[in-house]
Each structure stands twice: as structure tokens, then as C-alpha cells.
Design brief:
The structure holds two protein chains of two kinds. In chain A, the strands form three sheets. In chain A, strands 4, 5, 6, 7, 8, 9 and 10 form a seven-stranded mixed sheet that branches. In chain A, strands 1-12-11 form a three-stranded antiparallel sheet, with no helix packed on it. In chain A, strands 2-3 form a two-stranded antiparallel sheet. Chain A is 8% helix and 53% strand. In chain B, 22% of the residues lie in helices and 23% in strands. A three-stranded antiparallel sheet of chain B has the order 2-1-3. The mean pLDDT of chain B is 91. Chains A and B meet through strand 2, strand 3, strand 5 and helix 1 of A and helix 2 and strand 3 of B.
């Protein structure tokens, strides 16, 4: 069975700058996802980011679902500006639009963006993703996992 | 339940904090310097399914 989800972009405040003096908001493909470990669940706004290799969330969210964050498999990665960061990976479940999927997700206390990150492995490998900025709409179709 | 997707006014008063939004994102139900504190506040207000987000100190531009 193919899952088909329609989700909306979210608008966030933005500060004007020299290059964009009239800028007051930023529309981003940010959607609520639930991170689940056994009977613990936390919902978090996460950015669908085709430029990210993996799915990464803030370490504090891992604690909320009773993960011993730093006991996970360690990965060093590079964020914005090439700054070295550390994430610890755990097998969890992720729920999006009411659909639950397994996810090998990283948790990092170094994450320098305010959202969770839904990247290539853990998200794009499970969904075909269509962005429509004009309509402020994101559509997801699950890929056959067989 | 229709979700509010324009979060500009809702998040503007906060800086460098974790914010818990109501299930439909229509209001802020918890604020704290950790996810735990924001969720505890949401829970004390009987919010069953809050959505957490982190508000940065400055609303910058992201090139990822």
C-alpha cells in the first residue's frame, strides 16, 4: 500500500538584512514528526532537507523519549560552515501524518538549526517527495519497502 | 484539526528557547531552556500532544 501525504510549508519570522531589506518571513518545508521509543513519544518540527545525508534531531529530544543519547553509535559530521559536530545514532520509530516508520536517527547536542533534519537516509529513501513552493505544499508518497 | 502554519507572530516574542505549541499550533503552551521544561509546562496546562520547536536567538537565513 502506498502512503500519500499532503503537508504544508510553515512560515517563520525572518529578520531583514542588507540583501533582503523587506524580508519579514521565511517559508520552509518544516513539518511535525513524532519521535518514538517504545511507549515514549515527542513531537517536533523538522525540516525536509534534501541536502542532508541523514536524519538528525537535538539530543534533548532523545532524552525525552528515554534514550541514553551518548550510548548510541557515534558519528562526526559537518554542519553549516563546516563546523564539526557529533551525533549518536539509535533505532527509533518516526510518525509522520499518522504513519509510523522505522528510522535510524542521530541525536546531537551540537545541532545549530532550530529544527530536526529529515535527510536522505531515513526519510528520502522511504518517500518520494514533491515540493511546490508556489502552493506552499509538500507531497509525500511512500516507496515500496519490499 | 486544521493546523496553523503561519508561526511568525506566535514565535516572534521568543528567543533562544524551546517552545511547545498546542496540537494545532494555534498557541504557545510551554516555554523553557530545555525540551523537558517546555513540555512540563505544556503538561501542566493539560496539553496532550504538544509540538516542540526551538526558537533561535536570531532568525537568520539557512543555506543547508
Amino acid at each position: 500500500m502506498t502512503i500519500h501525504l499532503k503537508l504544508d510549508y510553515r512560515k517563520f519570522p525572518a529578520e531583514p538584512c542588507e540583501a533582503f531589506p523587506r524580508r519579514r518571513s521565511a517559508s520552509r518545508p518544516v513539518v511535525p514528526v513524532s519521535l518514538i521509543n517504545k511507549n515514549k513519544k515527542v513531537r517536533h518540527l523538522s525540516l525536509i532537507d534534501s541536502g542532508a545525508d541523514l536524519c538528525i534531531f537535538h539530543g534533548g529530544l532523545g532524552e525525552q523519549i528515554d534514550l541514553k543519547v551518548k550510548s548510541g553509535k557515534k558519528l562526526t559530521f559537518f554542519g553549516i560552515g563546516g563546523i564539526q559536530q557529533t551525533a549518536y545514532f539509535h533505532d527509533i520509530e518516526m510518525e509522520i501524518g499518522g504513519w509510523k516508520i522505522p528510522c535510524y536517527a542521530g541525536f546531537s547536542y551540537d545541532l545549530d538549526i532550530p529544527y530536526g533534519v529529515l535527510g536522505q537516509v531515513g526519510f528520502f529513501n522511504l518517500f518520494r517527495v514533491q515540493f511546490n513552493y508556489g502552493k506552499q505544499r509538500i507531497e509525500l508518497w511512500s516507496k515500496d519497502r519490499n | 484539526m486544521a493546523e496553523k502554519t503561519d508561526l511568525r507572530e506566535l514565535l516572534k516574542p521568543y528567543s533562544d528557547e524551546w517552545v511547545a505549541l498546542s496540537e494545532d499550533s494555534s498557541k504557545v503552551v510551554g516555554v523553557g531552556d530545555t525540551p523537558k521544561k517546555a513540555l512540563e509546562q505544556a503538561s501542566s496546562r493539560s496539553e496532550k500532544n504538544p509540538i516542540l520547536t526551538r526558537v533561535p536567538e536570531h532568525y537568520g537565513t539557512y543555506i543547508l
